[in-house]
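Reader question, answered in our methods column.
A reader sent in the components of a multi-part assembly and asked whether the whole thing could be modeled at once rather than chain by chain. We filled in our standard form and ran it. Here is what they sent:
COMPLEX SIZE: three components
ENTRIES:
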Amino acid sequence: MKFEGSHILSVNQFDRDSIEHVFHVANQMAPYAKRQKRTTVLDGAILGNLFFEPSTRTRVSFGTAFNLLGGEVRETTGMSNSALAKGESLYDTARVLSGYSDIITMRHPDSGSVAEFALGSRVPVINGGDGANEHPTQALLDLYTIQKELQYHGGNIDGLHIAMIGDLKYGRTVHSLSKLLCLFKNVRFTLISPKELAMPDAILSSIENAGHSYTISETLEGNFDADICYQTRVQEERFGSQEEANLYRGKFRLNQQIYTKHFQSKTVIMHPLPRDSRVEANELDNDLNMNPNLAIFRQTDNGVLVRMALFALTLGVESIISKFDKEVHWYSGH
Amino acid sequence: MKFEGSHILSVNQFDRDSIEHVFHVANQMAPYAKRQKRTTVLDGAILGNLFFEPSTRTRVSFGTAFNLLGGEVRETTGMSNSALAKGESLYDTARVLSGYSDIITMRHPDSGSVAEFALGSRVPVINGGDGANEHPTQALLDLYTIQKELQYHGGNIDGLHIAMIGDLKYGRTVHSLSKLLCLFKNVRFTLISPKELAMPDAILSSIENAGHSYTISETLEGNFDADICYQTRVQEERFGSQEEANLYRGKFRLNQQIYTKHFQSKTVIMHPLPRDSRVEANELDNDLNMNPNLAIFRQTDNGVLVRMALFALTLGVESIISKFDKEVHWYSGH
Amino acid sequence: MKFEGSHILSVNQFDRDSIEHVFHVANQMAPYAKRQKRTTVLDGAILGNLFFEPSTRTRVSFGTAFNLLGGEVRETTGMSNSALAKGESLYDTARVLSGYSDIITMRHPDSGSVAEFALGSRVPVINGGDGANEHPTQALLDLYTIQKELQYHGGNIDGLHIAMIGDLKYGRTVHSLSKLLCLFKNVRFTLISPKELAMPDAILSSIENAGHSYTISETLEGNFDADICYQTRVQEERFGSQEEANLYRGKFRLNQQIYTKHFQSKTVIMHPLPRDSRVEANELDNDLNMNPNLAIFRQTDNGVLVRMALFALTLGVESIISKFDKEVHWYSGH
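And here is the structure of the entire assembly that came back:
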């Protein structure tokens, strides 16, 4: 996969080599993100950070990643203040706004909108989430986190056992992550969800075609010797009736007691921290905050590294970053 | 006209010399906007980009132009979150916010508001559009585009033939552009609009007083040997009755077929891309996108150059920009 | 008080030495704020400027202060677009967003929210106002302004006579300012307010315990030989009934005539310029704009200096700022 000048729109663009290349570059970003060093390799470059749908976390993560490489950020947030809200076509918006920046990150509520926008853009576009469709940087940061967590325990993505819990039917993140995992070897999936929210057959086929194995469970009961427990939210409105929703309420939540009972002591807990709170929905109890295997904040930290890597690769500077190194003189809590 | 330290509030401030000076500086900005070079002449300067009315395109264009000169941008968007919405006077807001920046760009829905704000400001203010009143940077970028397009065909603004189409009565952009064209020689205007939306007498008088000529047409029928076709939107609510609106609906739209029938093969198509979509109103059909004479995206690109020029002139750095040149190391689609 | 790496959450954190240290550093910031010099000491540092409640002035002031030290700003404005609005806990938001920046400034409508946020943050947090609770940078800039205005007249905070006018019961700013003044010597307070909006007993006790003196007045009638007249807004909805509100309407406003009649010719007029306009409520008439003792815009200018000082101290760079000095080449109205 050629990164320089390319759009990053979908996890389907990636093969194993290109993923490993992204992760290799992401590893090199750590000292900059930790403020041990400073680089100005992108001095003068401008990111157009176009969030036509709110997402504070993802928006700030992209902006920070670009700043950490020395670039500037121009931003638009929300639909109501935007040209798009006035009926302007995605093509026109792309033609105009791509004249103002060197690279664009874009979130939009409509599936396919970012790819349509990219057709009109004169600079690379990175998909920051287009509705139910794709959010490739989330999938990459999830996989990058899995790799780092496993390496910490002496493991590897090949041979991984991952438990996915919650809404496996509509969850964009578990689908994308599963696709990426299909590029690796001997992955075991334990898929735990209400029957109504089971993993779609298409993904199951991909898993089988990749030579992986899976088991399906409709309850959190049992002993799961998973390396990773990837938790997602079950939204009550997904069920056919309130009665059915009531049947499942709280059955897929995780707290310290449940974790201790059903998982290994080294099982890493992940969560995409999506549009809704992990706590409101009770899928991850606050009593897990002191659990060292709770990796959800390492995920968001890793997101900065992965986004820095994608910026560096797409703008073709990944091999010259350290030529622009400077010292850091201020206090850093990182 | 003295630029350094001055407000840019109206096209009426400009004489021919000052316009040519702006365009001369704008030409020098091209290598920076194309990312062939990088300058940091405004390193440490802060733009206060105050958009009390939404306009993604103009706002980002100003911000990008300032970044490309090496400056920083502080921004406010929308009225609801602003001090002004809480009843603060323009004078107070100006006194306070001008203490935070080196130059201010401001858009506001009320006519005259930017000039009132400028009275309280301690730094130069550039009008980014104040309701129906003025939007001088749009007029300048329109005229700059005309000059560049004509020069490409070996022509010149003196002797230009421009067709203006659509709402010539309320269209802020055609009024401002006409005023600027009155500073040049031997311009022919072909003014095509519904009778109810004809060019105001005051502008017609200015055109005559400048020694220019005009013809008026109420239909798009005929052979227009114009160098430039400047299209604007006809809003149905401008008519006295729905019946009258129906009478004109679609009569002033441009598509490839109409263009081929009524214009020269080299006629340049322009449009201010204003608050509403060019497509929703059908005034410029998408089938023109492949027409090389469609200059609407060159207009928005030129807007960055003109705004960079105005920043450089107003902050008095136009002659020292290249002293702060740096190399560009990243991929650029520009 | 140790500043490096510390949160700034409350005026209660400060003793006299630490206040004088902040003011000493703020004094050193003046040439940078006036654009006589430029520093890049915070090059590469990122401020997370999180305004979950609108406040254009305070938000831009923080952002500008950080830019003037050479840092970058990532921002979020308003609640509706934020993760917090989606029910995310302050702890989670803090854990995530503190991974993206080197220091955070935060405003939030709820009392105590910023301190709660700080518990989850991995970088220093500066309280930019949390509802009725605290707004320490406002209190510090008020006190800094008092010191500078007094020094201009050859005076000093020790021995100050300050008149406080308006809503002394609910006014966050007068409470905070009073607390800070209790760290100094021999301050005289003249407290002028409707009986219903009198200064709370707790503050009066603090004033007495500090060895200060106060007199209470229910009208603006009299001769007030105050050095400082600190005006705040009386909101009608604070009264028990409309009849009572009517009784007081306009009785605590200040205009040039009232100022001349009741104050010394050198009395400095201050106002926190809070959420509502000074003019709408008529507490400071526009005819005071030409009065050289009107210090309200010097207050907002001083706010930049104080915030720069707090950033420099919290990030531990206050002693090395001038090592990163650069020349300023552009026009500056400052």
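What stands out: The interface with chain B takes residues 4-5, 41-46, 48, 72, 74, 76-77, 80-83, 86-89, 91-92, 95-102, 122-124, 314-317, 320, 324 of chain A (CB under 8 Å). Chain A is about 35% helix and 15% strand.
Send us your own complexes using the same form.
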